[in-house]
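Possible regression after last week's pipeline update?

I re-ran a chain I had predicted before the update to compare outputs. Posting the input and the new output here so someone can diff against the archived version. Not blocking, just want to make sure nothing changed silently.
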Amino acid sequence: MTENTHILENGAAKRLERSRSDRMVAGVCGGLARYFDIHPAFYRVGFVVLTLLGGAGIVIYAAAALVMPDEGKEDSIATAALRTRRDRPWPLIGLALVGVALATLLSRATLWPHGDAWVLLLLAGAGILWITRHGKTATTSDASALAAEDSRRIRRVFKGLAIAFGTIVALLLVAAAIFAAVFHVHLGRGAGERQYVPATAQDVRQNYRLGVGDLTVDLGNVRFPAGETHVGTRVDVGNLKVIVPADVALRVNGDAQLGQVEVLGLTNSGRDVHKNVDQAGARVLVIDAHVGVGQVRVTRAVR
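New output (post-update):
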């Protein structure tokens, strides 16, 4: 070695390249170590520290991996994408996505809820660059052939993703159908949050039903007549809350196929659970409270 650490013994200039023989991720640290004659552990520790101090290590390492050519290659990923940008647009698109992702991470710009768009952009860009990579024998003179191969690879990937997505959706639909059949879910009964607060006994319905969501039936202000008044309540999936007057006798049949039933402070939970209350009086409110999956709660109004 001469005094110029960037000149080889035969007089040739050193090239800053990613190492093939000393690499843990992309060979950046090994290439820097060989170029500057410093142990690669120094660079690896530095990248880790910068990453822990705010993520800059990821940005710098990724940028270096893009601009440093692989050992034995003339072009880096970035220069190859720019050189063949007219004939091979896909690598340039991938490079642009990675660049935007790194810039977003570095600036902490909010392009997504909680500023997490850089993750999706980085994955998409890195995926495109990986898909469109070619061996050392590929040259810029093969740009048209490489562009056609890039398009074929991208189409195959999108086709595979579409098949995988369709399979997942089909499995979810089958699982949802099985779930609906087992727990008797009827979406026609509605979904969301519903609350009913009748003021008089004439306003009280015989049945209150909901497919999926939270149903509250507040009967606390109702003055029920002498005898028995029957009210049926049901939620297929969700939570059911029934509030009853403080001055009426109760006959409650609460059950859940899977979940929890609480009636006047008495609780039972698990599968196929029931909780019953049977009180006598001149005015009796008979409540049938059923939930397929979720919670049933019957409480007295506080006056």
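Follow-up from reviewer: compared with the archived run. The two ends are 93 Å apart (CA to CA). Marking as no regression found.
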